[in-house]
Amino acid sequence: MTLQQLRYAITVAETGTITEAAKKLYISQPSLTNAIHELEKEMNLVIFQRTNKGILLSGEGEEFLGYARQVLEQASILEDKYKGNGGGKKQFCVSTQHYSFAVNAFVDLIKEYGQEEYDFSLRETQTYEIIEDVAHMRSEIGILFLNDFNETVLRKILKTNDLEFHELFVAKPHVFISRKHPLADRQVITNQELEEYPYLSFEQGEHNSFYFSEEIFSTSERKKNIRVRDRATLFNLLIGLNGYTVCSGVIDKKLNGKDIIAVPLQDEGDMRIGYITHRKAVPGRLAATYLEALRKYLG
């Protein structure tokens, strides 16, 4: 097994076809196919399933490539340290719930390590996908929160997937509303005061369970509910409809806009925001730098 073979397999998985991967790697299709076959034979596994419609990544192949990405990251660190050539193209992926501080930390990471070549991914996505991304090592880090309501269920899922939760900070829940909202002058807002306004939350797809919600106290009945997929849409609706959402209270005017404010919510439990990692993965330098940046914004 060679580092080149691992890069070949990862490129095939990313492009979805041998043809596109060969073009990207500047090698012939037969050479690439042979390299993949040799890797599968040596490792005694099937990375890709061949079908009439093309190739599909197998379950064991997805797990194998998760480890392969870790190996390539460590190899890059060694090259950077001893060869002094920057270690080639840097690669890093983080999956997160919709937090502005996660974006700010990502910007800092790119400013520090974004040289001439890099391939970084920031996935603001659904809670279940965050867990899957880290479980299959597509992402080194996943950012989400635990509280008294969801902790038992989520910790069981994390344990099943060989994942660990690391707490970053404890947040008091806040209501995000427009600066022009009728309740904007309140020092503290109660659930009763919010009853007549639209409640905005992030849609969780087929895993739309209360336990995967990004918002706290998700079992409460509300008369007006709107679910969205992205942060920009949510904030536009907060302003346009006098809606509200509930989150950590960490707000960034550059990302969230000056028209959004955070007001403490009365009588609700804490949110323990943290990150998840795979037990069998060795966090790379980029992951460590990203976590350091996160702590700066949460300190």
TrEMBL record:
<comment type="similarity">
    <text>Belongs to the LysR transcriptional regulatory family.</text>
</comment>
<dbReference type="InterPro" id="IPR005119">
    <property type="entry name" value="LysR_subst-bd"/>
</dbReference>
<keyword id="KW-0238">DNA-binding</keyword>
<dbReference type="InterPro" id="IPR036390">
    <property type="entry name" value="WH_DNA-bd_sf"/>
</dbReference>
<keyword id="KW-0804">Transcription</keyword>
<dbReference type="InterPro" id="IPR000847">
    <property type="entry name" value="LysR_HTH_N"/>
</dbReference>
<dbReference type="Pfam" id="PF00126">
    <property type="entry name" value="HTH_1"/>
</dbReference>
<dbReference type="Pfam" id="PF03466">
    <property type="entry name" value="LysR_substrate"/>
</dbReference>
<protein>
    <submittedName>
        <fullName>LysR family transcriptional regulator</fullName>
    </submittedName>
</protein>
<keyword id="KW-0805">Transcription regulation</keyword>
<feature type="domain" description="HTH lysR-type">
    <location>
        <begin position="1"/>
        <end position="58"/>
    </location>
</feature>
<dbReference type="InterPro" id="IPR036388">
    <property type="entry name" value="WH-like_DNA-bd_sf"/>
</dbReference>
